[in-house]
Design brief:
heterodimer; A: mainly alpha; Four Helix Bundle (Hemerythrin (Met), subunit A); 8 helices; B: 3 domains; four-stranded antiparallel beta sheet; 38% helix
């Protein structure tokens, strides 16, 4: 595993996607008001997304499992969901203003990915279970959607119109709702895995506790997001604060405390 | 008459108001927020007070920890008491919301997903309470192949029939596969292979492989200048003239016997008539005695010999099936809710996410 042949194509595709997302940011800012040229940004982001998707398939084939282990793979998976959902919202709601910020988030994730080893390594017995793969894949998919929700919230608070009609509200709602469902599956798979591996589906380790905090936080958000008084800026603010919580749970805890989940 | 009716109406109005508050999503949100704040602040302060705080909590069923350990760690454990109170309030809020749905909104298929999510969570919580109250944990059970150990709290015994180490392609050990059996009296209740992620499950009792370890089973001593002997607990070394050195005890790392703390070996000298001729506790721990002279014979502790043992945890969680069924209901609820959200399930009352 991890031979030159196996690691060279991810290296190329990683740089390829990173560069295209960068170009997507620049072109979407440059051609913001230039009709058809604005499409360049969309196609750049779509090509970057395609590169990431191809990398995922190739790594999956080489390793025999969904590539979501280690910093490199998890950050790619996160970026894939961020740009994937931004492209979907672009096509469904014509949400062009979301594309540069989503591409910027994807670029940040890919730069962080660059810090992790790229070689494909076999799964150790502790993580050689479908429950682990479901747990990690759903958590990063949810993080990606919560990230796009936060970007939407920021754009709404700064007064930018993201999409025509009720598109803004629907984008935020879809990100929060589907993200919450994915995160619920992450918690179920993780708890079941913990029960089979360590003897308890609930542990008092700090990372696990903060994952529950995150779940309860978004449970609250899901309950209030459609209530009258919470429409508009309150729910936008909740989405931004929620992603702050995601970042602290994912990055902050790993840096400040000794956890059972060192930076994946 | 009118005053009497008003008096009767007052408790009913209070009950109605209480019910309204109980089923309100705002109540749930406020309680969730308080729950999150308490857990966030508590987990961080507890970590800084003692980085092993969570590991100590995980070593016991929660009720045992709460009743016996938490009072000794106050005020660092105060947040856990608050968390318990908030959890019960949260669950009551969810329960009332769910009951209300069944009373008022039962014909709406689209809302069923959310109700299943609530029901699933309630089942998981019930399972957790059952497991915390009646659960048992026996931890760090060390067994060499062929050995059996009683598990008094579970009224069972665990036997290790065999073990083999799995290595990766570089020869590094990555897992241990053990053949174990759970015994009830003489009867074998369950038997099978255990390894990481594959415990032995017998109802609500589960055997988890934890580790491999070396357990001291003897010691190597140097007698005089050159003679090396290997001894075992209860054994002896003949010194000639009928004199013998008896190995009275072998203490592993951290093991205690009276004022003695392991690792070390307790030796006693007997003369030809079996009379006591002196004793010494020898250890290789810094700051302790490694050698002694017994009746003119210099004796020095050299090293331990160790037998490889497998380490297991055995847990019994009577609430586990509630939790598993709850997780299934919760997962089904999210699937149903997602289908409703994406417009796959018709609703008479229009779109409603949650």
């Amino acid at each position: 595993m991890g031979t030159a042949a196996e690691t060279s194509y991810p290296a190329f595709l990683h740089t390829f996607s990173l560069a295209l997302y960068g170009i997507a940011i620049i072109t979407s800012l440059l051609f913001r008001r230039k009709g058809r040229l604005r499409q360049v940004a969309f196609w750049c982001a779509a090509a970057g997304f395609g590169g990431q998707l191809l990398q995922l398939v190739l790594r999956w084939r080489a390793s025999g499992h969904l590539p979501v282990t280690g910093l490199f793979e998890t950050q790619h998976f996160l970026a894939l969901w961020v740009t994937g959902s931004a492209l979907y919202f672009y096509l469904r709601y014509r949400a062009a203003p979301l594309l540069p910020s989503a591409s910027a988030l994807a670029v940040a994730a890919l730069i962080l990915a660059s810090r992790g080893p790229r070689a494909i390594v076999p799964l150790t017995p502790a993580i050689d279970t479908p429950l682990f793969l479901i747990h990690v894949a759903t958590s990063f998919a949810a993080y990606g959607l919560f990230g796009v929700a936060a970007l939407t919230g920021i754009l709404r608070l700064t007064g930018s119109k993201i999409a025509p009609g009720t598109g803004d509200r629907r984008i935020l709602d879809e990100c929060l709702y589907i993200g919450y469902i994915l995160f619920t599956w992450c918690m179920i798979a993780g708890s079941l895995w913990a029960y089979l591996a360590w003897g308890s589906y609930w542990t008092w380790k700090i990372k696990n506790l903060w994952s529950w905090i995150l779940w309860f936080y978004y449970s609250g958000v899901i309950h209030v997001r459609r209530r009258g008084g919470w429409q508009g800026w309150p729910v936008a603010l909740l989405a931004i604060a929620g992603f702050g919580l995601v970042l602290f749970t994912y990055l902050g805890l790993g840096l400040l405390f000794k956890t059972s989940h060192p930076l994946l | 008459m009118k005053t009497g009716m008003m008096k009767a109406a007052q408790p009913a109005a209070i009950l109605r108001a209480l019910w309204k508050v109980s089923i309100s999503p705002v109540t749930f949100v406020v309680l969730s927020l308080l729950w999150c704040l308490d857990l966030a602040a508590g987990s961080i302060t507890a970590y800084y007070a003692d980085p092993n705080f969570s590991a100590r909590m995980d070593a016991y069923p929660f009720k045992v920890w709460l009743g016996q350990v938490a009072p000794r760690t106050l005020p660092h454990s105060l947040w856990v008491y608050i968390l318990v109170a908030l959890s019960y309030l949260l669950v009551l809020s969810l329960l009332f919301c769910t009951v209300n749905w069944f009373l008022k909104r039962r014909y709406r298929l689209r809302g069923l997903g959310e109700v299943l999510v609530h029901l699933g969570f309630l089942l998981i919580f019930s399972g957790f309470v059952l497991g915390s109250t009646f659960g048992v944990r026996e931890q760090r059970i060390m067994l060499a192949p062929g050995e059996t150990k009683e598990l008094p709290f579970l009224d069972m015994a665990l036997r290790l029939d065999g073990m083999r180490v799995v290595t990766n392609d570089r020869g590094r050990p990555v897992d241990t596969v053990s053949e174990v059996a759970l015994l009830q009296g003489e009867r074998e209740a369950a038997a099978g292979e255990v390894r990481i992620n594959h415990p032995l499950i017998w109802g609500s009792t589960v055997v988890y492989p934890r580790d491999r370890a070396g357990r001291p089973d003897g010691a190597v001593l140097r007698l005089g200048k050159e003679r090396m002997v290997r001894v075992r607990p209860g054994g002896h070394v003949d010194l000639g003239d009928g004199r013998r050195i008896l190995v009275q005890a072998l203490l592993g790392e951290g093991e205690r016997r009276g004022s003695l703390t392991g690792p070390g070996v307790l030796l006693a000298l007997r003369d030809s008539r079996g009379r006591h001729g002196g004793a010494a506790f020898l250890s290789n721990r810094p700051g302790t005695r490694q050698g002694a002279v017994l009746d003119g014979m210099p004796v020095r502790f050299v090293s331990f010999t160790a037998a490889e043992v497998a380490v297991f945890d055995v847990h019994r969680d009577p609430g586990i099936w509630f939790a598993i069924i709850g997780a299934v209901v919760l997962a089904c609820g999210t699937l149903w809710a997602l289908a409703g959200y994406l417009g796959m399930i018709p609703s008479a009352a229009g779109a409603d996410g949650a």
